């Protein structure tokens, strides 16, 4: 039950890890840990300088047992006594026959699931923060997911949080859903919502004042594609870089995308396809070939084929296929900088012609 200390997280009696790191590992809010410490004495055995909480491996083992017991329905005070004493309390009594209950047909179709009771997510070898976020998602613990995601982005940055925490956890929930019939649908939906909310907060909180001299970047899912989270992550990353972007979301019709390209003259168009069945190669070719501007100075855009659905042949001229969020941000930043430099030199037409 006791998880090994992670690299960079010494857990000896003279060191230990911070409350925030423990909270991310276990999937609980830091405020919850402080409340358990204050109310029930579930806290670190020692504090540096008498003030800073530093949790040892023994402290974390007690916390893990506290989490397991409370998730299974044991009242917090009783769970705390049992966790500190190393005993196992009796299971909560079944409700009286007269008490309101869920219809038998519902409980038979969707048996109760509790974190740590044999229905863990298939995460594999991932960061401990993924396990904490997964536990919070399975508990449908919205406040903890919100707090964790904001804390992770603040500490590790958007790209690392997306690639090493958000995506592995989302994939694990998706695999659990696929192998459990209709179970875990609510977990996937709630986790996706909170990831989307965290990404939107990055976009809203990014410094204002985009580079007016650079044409915008358009982001859209191909027709029939509903997976928008990767484009939301890219939109947030562009906002952090101060690059102008227009996010059109899921399943954009070809006619609408064509009009958007002609009206904005974008420096790049990012097309997301999750599966090969939705990848629209004819549409990508059409966007890459679309031109605008006066005769003699016609311009066109660069198309980024984003997502696993585009796997296959080498992209045609005028198209790029980034390998992930970090690479996509680097490519788009370079395109915008080149366009801005060319505009400053009076070469707008040459900058826009990126075939």
Computed structural class: alpha/beta
CATH homologous group name of the largest domain: Cobalamin-binding domain
Distance between the amino and carboxyl termini: 57 Å
Mean pLDDT: 78
Query: What's the quaternary structure here?
Result: single chain
CATH class of the largest domain: Alpha Beta
Principal-axes geometry comes out as: elongated
CATH architecture level-2 label of the largest domain = 3-Layer(aba) Sandwich
Number of structurally distinct domains: 3
* Number of beta strands: 7
How does the major sheet shape up?
Answer: 5 strands, parallel
Strand content: 5-15%
Strand neighbour order, sheet with most strands: 4-3-5-6-7
Question: Please, could you describe this protein's structure?
Answer:
- This protein is an alpha/beta fold and 355 residues long.
- The chain has three domains: 1-93, Multidrug-efflux Transporter Regulator, Chain: A, Domain 2, CATH 1.10.1660; 128-205, Methionine synthase domain (Methyltransferase, Methionine Synthase (B12-binding Domains), Chain A, domain 1, Orthogonal Bundle), CATH 1.10.1240.10; 210-352, Rossmann fold (3-Layer(aba) Sandwich).
- Helices cover 50% and strands 8% of the residues.
- The protein is built from 14 helices and seven strands.
- It has helices at residues 19-26, 30-40, 57-71, 76-85, 104-109, 128-138, 142-156, 158-178, 185-205, 229-241, 254-264, 281-289, 325-344, 348-352; strands at 46-48, 52-54, 217-221, 245-249, 268-272, 302-306, 319-320.
- The strands form two sheets. A five-stranded parallel beta sheet has the order 4-3-5-6-7, with helices on both faces. It has a two-stranded antiparallel sheet with strand order 1-2.
- α12 (281-289) links the parallel β5 and β6 (302-306).
- α1 packs across α6 (128-138) and α7 (142-156) runs antiparallel to α8.
- It is elongated and about 80 Å long.
- It starts with 18 loop residues before the first helix and ends with a helix.
- The relative contact order is 0.08.
